[in-house]
Amino acid sequence: MRWQNYQLDNTVLKVAEDMMLWQSERGVIRIDKNTLALQIILDGQKGGYVFCGSGKLVLDTIVETEEGAFGRPVDKEINKPLLMLGETEKIQQNLAATKEGNLAEIGYGNQQELLAKAEDFCERFFGRRFHSHDCYDIDGGLIFAFSNEADKFDLLLTKDSRLVYKATDMVFVSNDDKVILKSPNGVVCADDRKIVIKKGKSFIIKK
Q1: C-alpha–C-alpha distance, residues 160 and 140, integer Å
Q2: Number of structural domains, the chain?
Q3: Cα–chain-centroid distance for residue 159?
Q4: With contact defined as beta carbons under 8 Å apart, do 93 and 15 qualify?
Q5: Which of 34, 51, 126, 144 is the most exposed, having the fewest neighbouring CB atoms within 10 Å of its CB?
Q6: How many of the other CB atoms lie within 10 Å of CB of 172?
Q7: How far apart are CA 177 and CA 190, in angstroms?
Q8: Nearest C-alpha neighbor of 51 from the set 72, 28, 35
Q9: Is the pLDDT of residue 197 over 50?
């Protein structure tokens, strides 16, 4: 499915119970009860949400080889806005109307403050990646954008068994038994037939 233009709905909802936004053998993204949610409309259709509250990202980005384990797991607390694009039906089932005081529990003085924060997040995300005439194809997968300490975005893209995670200090790609990890320590490419390890300008190929 392709979208060009986004719009942020101004109806503030909340997460009724702790909820998994995504879960696989590689990791999970969880958001906590009472996290606030604003729906994103993409070209007139329900496209995703901006969540403001708390949660957790856990991701197994370790590559096991005969040379040992490379990489380190991702284990991050989510306490800044989180954007999710993709399937929304399951999310809607766990959302409820907000009551007076819900915004204050999350640290927002009023609805306008929350909307301004979410709008700024969306403008930076869509504006940095897409021009006004570009189309963006989610194609049945999920996309997550997290604020990082550099005021940029860490990204997680997933569809079926395929996963891409891009952060300031690493890139991790996984598709079934094929894995690529790029970090400041080097590059590791592994599948069920061989392992390629790059350290500096040298490559080591293990079969």
Answers
A1: 9
A2: 1
A3: 12
A4: no
A5: 34
A6: 24
A7: 8
A8: 35
A9: yes
Q: How far is CA 20 from the centre of its chain?
A: 12
Would you say 5 and 43 are in contact if contact means Cβ atoms under 8 Å apart?
yes
Could you read off the pLDDT of 59-104 as tens digits, one per residue? Answer: 999 987 777 788 889 999 999 999 999 877 888 889 999 987 788 8
- pLDDT tens per residue, range 118-135: 999 998 888 755 443 344
Cα(102)–Cα(114) distance, integer angstroms: 11
In whole angstroms, what separates CA 118 from the centre of its chain? 15
Q: Is residue 25 part of a domain?
A: yes
* Rounded distance between C-alpha atoms, residue 195 and residue 204, angstroms: 8
Triad 24, 88, 85: Cα angle to 5°: 75
- Tokens standing for 30? 């969880």
Distance of CA 54 to the CA centre of its chain: 14
192: in domain = no
Nearest CA to 159 among 179, 180, 178, 138?
138
Cβ pair 206, 194 in contact under 8 A = yes
Within-domain flag for 201: no
Let me know if residue 181 belongs to a domain: no
Q: What is the DSSP letter of 168?
A: T
Q: Strand, helix or coil at 82? A: strand
Range of the domain at 10: 2-168
